[in-house]
């Protein structure tokens, strides 16, 4: 049986998850995973040039995939849009098998050398939520929706990590409050967008958002890249 690149990477990730709670997303954990899998060192480094960092990002991507699959298989038609967003954030957090894996990941991505990777992973998660829920915004709204959701998601994640309430009920209440704040902001923003007096001032932000969005849309259409809109 031929082992594919992705299969080997998943084997490394599965093996590493047993070491991360003790040694973090570190070179020590990566080396232990390579030994556990019996994979040649050169092959392991070819699969994961940055070692633990690549596997930490793969772990995050797996959680995103699980969230999208659950969203697509769940009937959300009776929910208000704010409730669908809350469900998506909840599904994403519930895709985590062990909080310690996330705590260790936050330690890794708080390092200056990896902070950009962590920010990109967070942005992609929030982008997937909006895309899967059918967002079709094209102007500055595309950017602000993802920026505000990034704030909601990151603050809820931090609350969730310290929450020991039954079924994380306090976390879901916190999430509802944060989304209420966002919806109030979106209401005010819509009023500004509908006011013809402000349209000249929005022309430049809308153009800049289009420049940010275009490359990301092009990348999402590349073969092999997850695109929940298809």
What would your notes on this structure say?
This protein is an all-alpha fold and 230 residues long. The chain has two domains: 1-49; 55-220, Tetracycline Repressor, domain 2, CATH 1.10.357. Helix content is 74%, strand content 0%. The protein is built from eleven helices and no strands. It has helices at 5-17, 20-23, 27-37, 41-47, 52-73, 81-94, 99-109, 115-132, 140-161, 169-194, 199-220. The longest helix has 26 residues, at 169-194. It is globular. The two termini are 31 Å apart. The model is unreliable at 197-209 and 217-230 (pLDDT under 50). Belongs to the COQ9 family. This is COQ9 C-terminal domain-containing protein. GO terms for molecular function: lipid binding. One of its GO terms (biological process) is ubiquinone biosynthetic process. Keywords: Lipid-binding, Transit peptide, Ubiquinone biosynthesis.
Keywords:
230 residues; mainly alpha; Tetracycline Repressor, domain 2; transit peptide; 11 helices; 74% helix; COQ9 C-terminal domain-containing protein; Ubiq_biosynth_COQ9; 0% strand; lipid-binding; lipid binding; disordered C terminus
For this structure, what is the CATH class of the largest domain? Mainly Alpha
Rough outline: globular
Q: How many individual β-strands?
A: 0
Output the structural class. mainly alpha
Count the domains. 2
Q: Averaging pLDDT over every residue, what do you get?
A: 84
How much of the residues is beta strand, in percent? under 5%
CATH architectural name of the largest domain = Orthogonal Bundle
End-to-end span in angstroms?
31 Å
Largest sheet: none
Q: What name is given to the CATH topology of the largest domain?
A: Tetracycline Repressor, domain 2
**Element order: H for helix, E for strand:** HHHHHHHHHHH
Residue stretches low in confidence (pLDDT < 50, at least 5 long) are 197-209, 217-230
Q: What's the helix count?
A: 11
Radius of gyration: 20 Å
> Helix coverage percent of residues?
over 70%
